[in-house]
Amino acid sequence: MKILIADDDPQILRALRITLGAEGYEIVTAADGEQAISGAIRHRPDIFMIDLGMPKLNGIEVITGVRGWSTAPILVISGRSGAADKVEALDAGADDYVTKPFSIDELLARIRAMTRRLARNDADPVVSFGNVTVDLSARSVTKRIDAQPQPVRLTPTEWQVLELLIRNPGKLVTRQTLLTEIWGSEHISDTGYLRLYIAQLRKKLEPNPGVPKYIMTEAGMGYRLHLPAKG
User: Fold this and answer.
1) Which of 15, 26, 3 minimizes the C-alpha distance to 103?
2) Which of 56, 85, 92, 197 has the fewest C-beta atoms lying within 10 Å of its C-beta?
3) Model confidence at 198, in pLDDT bands (50, 70, 90)?
4) Residues 114 and 130 in one domain
5) pLDDT surpasses 90 at 147
6) What CATH number corresponds to the domain at position 85?
């Protein structure tokens, strides 16, 4: 498993290279945004760990650049703890966010979670509801318009919300679960984020967003993806 770590703090780079190397990971380091992009192209890492405040290209620019051609998981490691920074990073394409200072045990747990996500890609389902088809493995959404499938562009955060619902078909996914998985446990009460992204998903995927048939609200609890019965 190859991990690219991009951070302009040489002490952090050295510490993570030693610590993660001892865990059996192959480590590639970059001291600025330009090195991160060139290292990504050259080494094709399985996982990215990106700092936001880097010279030449900042972390958001690196994430955006990487997302142009790679679906590899991206973990942001940053001293910025504001909600706006986290939302910006996640919307740019990051999969997770850890605030400095962090514990090595937490970091390793986040990496293991990303590794499990990579391992299950082959079994990812293709799900259809209404005129929408979602391919989790390809990370693609299409919508039939006049009998022709048209791509639907989702933001990374919209995709995360949809993926959690799809992985729990017909089951209640609580607001707390969605907020914790996507924004972190410190945002467990920020239900406004969730309502915004649910509304956006309905606008893009439901035949009548005001009267949803598939992305259903369970009042006071969370959301449920209603899929049509097979056969």
Assistant:
1) 15
2) 56
3) very high
4) no
5) no
6) 3.40.50.2300
CA atoms of 50 and 34, how far apart (whole Å): 12
Range of the domain at 221: 124-225
Residue 225, pLDDT > 90, answer: yes
Task: Return the percent helix, strand and coil in the chain, to nearest 5.
Answer: 45, 25, 35
C-beta of residue 112 within 8 angstroms of C-beta of residue 147? no
Map tokens 């990487």 to a residue. 66
Same domain for 39 and 105, yes or no, is yes
Q: Which amino acid is located at 227 in the chain? A: L
Which segment of 142-151, 162-171, 189-198, 215-224 scores lowest on mean pLDDT? 189-198
Residue 168, domain member (yes or no): yes
Contacts of 227 (CB under 8 A, 6+ apart): 127, 129, 169, 170, 214
In the predicted structure, residue 192 carries a pLDDT above the cut 70: yes
189-213 average pLDDT score: 90
Q: State the total domains in the chain.
A: 2
pTM for the structure as a whole = 0.59
DSSP alpha helices (H): ranges in the chain? 10-22, 33-43, 59-67, 83-92, 104-119, 156-166, 175-183, 191-205
